[in-house]
Design a protein that fits this description.
The protein is an alpha/beta fold and about 120 residues long. It contains five helices and five strands.
C-alpha cells in the first residue's frame, strides 16, 4: 500500500515543485537556453493560444507521450510544464521527474494565466 499512496501523493495538484516565472521563461526563450516546453492543457485550451515552440501533450496522455519527448531531447535540456493555472503542471513535473530522464524540470509559475509573452493561436 505504501507504493500506491506515494504515487497518489506525487500527482496531487498542490505542493512545491520547481518553477520559473513568466519573465524568466521569456528571457530564456530569447537567449536560446536549451529547453522544451510541454503544454499539458486540453485541446481547446491549446487552440485558444499557446507559447510559440511549446509541444502539446495533454496531462491525461503525458505518460504515453513522454518517450517521444525523451527520444528527441538531451537529458540536460530544461523542461517547462505549462497549464492554465499551475495545477496540472505540478503533477506533470512530478511524473517527468519520476521517469528520471530529465534533471531540470519546472512548471510555469501561475500557468498561462500569468504568461506575459506572446501566444500563438493555431489556424483552424
Amino acid at each position: 500500500m505504501g507504493g500506491a499512496v506515494s504515487r497518489i501523493r506525487n500527482y496531487r495538484p498542490w505542493g512545491y515543485v520547481p518553477s520559473i516565472t513568466s519573465a524568466a521563461l521569456a528571457q530564456d526563450l530569447t537567449s536560446g537556453v536549451p529547453l522544451v516546453m510541454i503544454d499539458v492543457r486540453t485541446g481547446g485550451e491549446w487552440r485558444s493560444g499557446h507559447i510559440s515552440g511549446a509541444i502539446h501533450v495533454p496531462i491525461h496522455k503525458l505518460a504515453a507521450g513522454l518517450p517521444a519527448v525523451e527520444a528527441t531531447h538531451d537529458p540536460s535540456t530544461r523542461v517547462i510544464c505549462i497549464c492554465r493555472a499551475a495545477h496540472r503542471s505540478k503533477p506533470a513535473v512530478r511524473l517527468i521527474a519520476d521517469r528520471g530522464h530529465f534533471s531540470d524540470i519546472r512548471e510555469l509559475e501561475g500557468g498561462m494565466l500569468r504568461w506575459e509573452g506572446k501566444t500563438v493561436i493555431p489556424e483552424t
